[in-house]
């Protein structure tokens, strides 16, 4: 049973996911910069913009964690699981995450950053996965 409220746990998990997302974006940025695209600048600018947004989010998360006296530390990892130590108001809890779950969540974050701004601006074609009619 966890003593950490869900809002605080969500904040601690963001401190796990955002650095992973930053690492993915930085790797992708280097690929865009070195690949022979005909028009590389739009891709590079998009990834740089998202990187800036994620860095800002991570800054706010770290600031809030510090303000609330919380910490997260990676303690052990293998091919299947990664374990983190959550420190919350003097309590220590270990949480293990299935590595594919971490990867899938980071992928969904990336998708959100890439496409969320378009969801409100454009209508999706009929039959798309987000079609509500």
Automatic annotation (TrEMBL):
Q: Which Pfam families has this protein been placed in?
A: YhjD
* InterPro entries membership: YhjD-like
Query: How is this protein named in the record?
Result: YhjD
């Amino acid at each position: 049973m966890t003593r950490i409220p869900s809002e605080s746990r969500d904040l601690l998990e963001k401190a796990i996911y955002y650095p992973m997302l930053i690492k993915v974006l930085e790797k992708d940025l280097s690929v865009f910069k070195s690949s022979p695209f005909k028009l590389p600048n739009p891709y590079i600018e998009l990834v740089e913009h998202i990187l800036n947004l994620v860095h800002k989010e991570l800054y706010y998360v770290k600031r809030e964690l510090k303000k609330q006296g919380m910490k997260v530390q990676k303690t052990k990892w293998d091919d299947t699981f990664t374990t983190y130590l959550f420190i919350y108001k003097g309590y220590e809890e270990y949480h293990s995450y299935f590595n594919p779950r971490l990867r899938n969540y980071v992928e969904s974050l990336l998708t959100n950053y890439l496409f969320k701004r378009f969801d409100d601006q454009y209508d999706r074609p009929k039959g798309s996965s987000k079609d509500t009619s």
